[in-house]
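Homework help board

Subject: predicted structure for assignment chain

Our instructor gave us this sequence and asked us to write out the predicted structure in token form, then describe one feature. I got the tokens but I'm not sure how to describe them. Can anyone check?
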Amino acid sequence: MKNVRELKQHIRDLLDACTTAWRYLILGEEKKAMGLMATIIDLLERIVSAKSSNPVLRLCYDSITFLLPRLLKTMEERNGILLADILEHELKPILEDILEHISECSCDG
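My token output:
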């Protein structure tokens, strides 16, 4: 990430993509959801590669790094129900925490 503004935009894009993918999965449109998951994974990898001296942000980045293998395995297994659960109840809260934290402070991203 070049700056905090870019990081915030990536997080917002990710939250939107997670919500859309979740809706697709709930509606049984797995093919559309899986197509969107490639974008989600790409954005997650960009966020995780961001460097920060802020310990809270590093912890959030580590949480995403820890979640990525499960997310990829669930996608590979095409387990739509578990994938929807991971997106809604695990990934989105992490992303919301990051967005809230960088909005509250002047972090280096």
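Reply (TA_rk): Your tokens look well-formed. For the description, you could write something like this. DSSP finds four helices and no strands in the chain. That's the kind of observation they're looking for.
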